[in-house]
Amino acid sequence: MTSLWSAPARTRIKICGIRDEATAHAALAAGADTLGFVFHKASPRFIEPDEAWAIIQTLPPMHTTVGLTVGASVEAYSRIERQCPTDFGQLHGDEPEEVVRACGPRVIKAVRFDRATIAAQLRRWGAVDEVDAVLVDGSAGGMGEAFDWSALAGACGECAKPIILAGGLNAANVGEAIRVVRPWAVDVSSGVERERGVKDAGMIREFCAAVRAADAALA
Asked: pLDDT by residue (tens digit) across 27-60?
């Protein structure tokens, strides 16, 4: 299978774990396309849905927002969505297919990279109508764990949906990750933090600049 979404002309950028208005605006000013808000209470980047909605209300147009949950029930997911109606919902746990379908449409399904299962995972979730993109992470999320990008690149053709690359990305390595995988988007959280859960505007700018430089080199 050949993905319709391979080798984009411009790699989209998602900054995840936004917790305050200043960081949200700094990320968009740096060139981010998408802001992610973490609604998983165990995360150091957790934000209450009503607080996230207050930030979203201040943002300029022509961007997208993502609300991240982990293993939430359909009822819990729907409750969060009512409180903070983001453009996409990111399901970052081991949600069964019936839950993913019920939470859709406009779902990003996250999977943890495993060389033995990644091709099957990409085929599985790429075939679900309610899933708009598949995010591949190196860990359960937010741990900054990179993985073998070349192994993922070999499986990308199995997915009929856009692939978002996450896991251990930072300004120093995102260019190589883009060159190898050619993902639709890259997602960063810990790689732009000065301490766990605290974003750094300068690191966000450096990351976005590195993505644009990688795109220019591949043009």
From this structure: 999 999 999 999 999 999 999 999 999 999 999 9
Catalytic residues: 16, 137
The three state secondary structure string of the chain is CCCCCCCCCCCEEEEECCCCHHHHHHHHHHCCCEEEEECCCCCCCECCHHHHHHHHCCCCCCCEEEEEECCCCHHHHHHHHHHCCCCEEEECCCCCHHHHHHHCCCEEEEEECCCCCHHHHHHHHHCCCCEEEEEEECCCCCCCCCCCHHHHHCCHHHCCCCEEECCCCCCCCHHHHHHHHCCCEEEECHHHEEECCEECHHHHHHHHHHHHHHHHHHC
Q: Are residues 131 and 98 in contact, defined by beta-carbon separation less than 8 angstroms?
A: no
Domain 12-218 class, CATH top level: alpha beta
CB atoms within 10 A of CB 78: 14
Report residue 117 as tokens: 């299962």
Q: Where are the domains of the chain?
A: 12-218
pLDDT, tens digit, 9 for 90 and up, residues 132-188: 999 999 865 556 667 899 999 999 999 999 999 999 999 999 999 999 999 999 999
